[in-house]
Each structure stands twice: as C-alpha cells, then as structure tokens.
Amino acid sequence: PRESTEKKRELLDAAIRLEKPDAILTISLNMMNTLSHVIFIRTMQSRVIALDLILAHFHKSKEHDKLLQIYQGLDRVKDVAMVMVEKALRSRKVETQIDRLRELIPYFESQPCTSMGT
Hints:
The protein is mostly helical. Helix content is 77%, strand content 0%. The protein is built from seven helices and no strands. The radius of gyration is 16 Å and the shape is elongated. The protein starts with a helix and ends in an 8-residue tail after the last helix.
C-alpha cells in the first residue's frame, strides 16, 4: 500500500508540474476515495494547488459533506463553520433553516473563541 500511495503522489506531482488542472482534480479525487483520510489530508496539505482545486470542485458541486471532511481534517474551523451554515440554509423553508441553524449551536459553543478567527 505504501508504494501505491507514493505512486499516486508522484502522479499528482507530475500533473501539478505540467499544470494540468483536470488531471490534478481527477488524481486528487481518486486519492480521496482510495487513501486513508489522514494520508489524503497530509498529501493535500503539501500540495496547495491540488487542495484548492478539489475544494473548488466540492464548493461548485455543493458537496458539503466532503468539504466538511477536508476542512475538519485540516482543522480549519472557520471554513467548517461556513460550510455548516451554508448547508443549514439549503432548505427553502425558513422554519427548517432556523431548526438546522439551532442544531449548529453546540458545535459553535464547543469551539475556542480564538480558533473561530482562523
């Protein structure tokens, strides 16, 4: 498995060097689906271009759960909060939006005040 992970990283690095956004995104998506979450996050942390592309892809396709996975893995609390709010507001019914926003209160209360600014 370690060799396979290294080959995937090498392939991603080659796509980055060649500046091929479609290839970078395809490889990144494959890595997200085939590597452990920890290894995937570590890989993306050192490859900002790939990280930006996959995040943009999930934002565009409104795949909130995948965004949350990545942002939580990166410990980006502010981004987690923003995605959670966006997800809560997806309903057309105001009552449902309010209920979903109320469900977020325990998460926000559990976060240290200093971490919400990052």
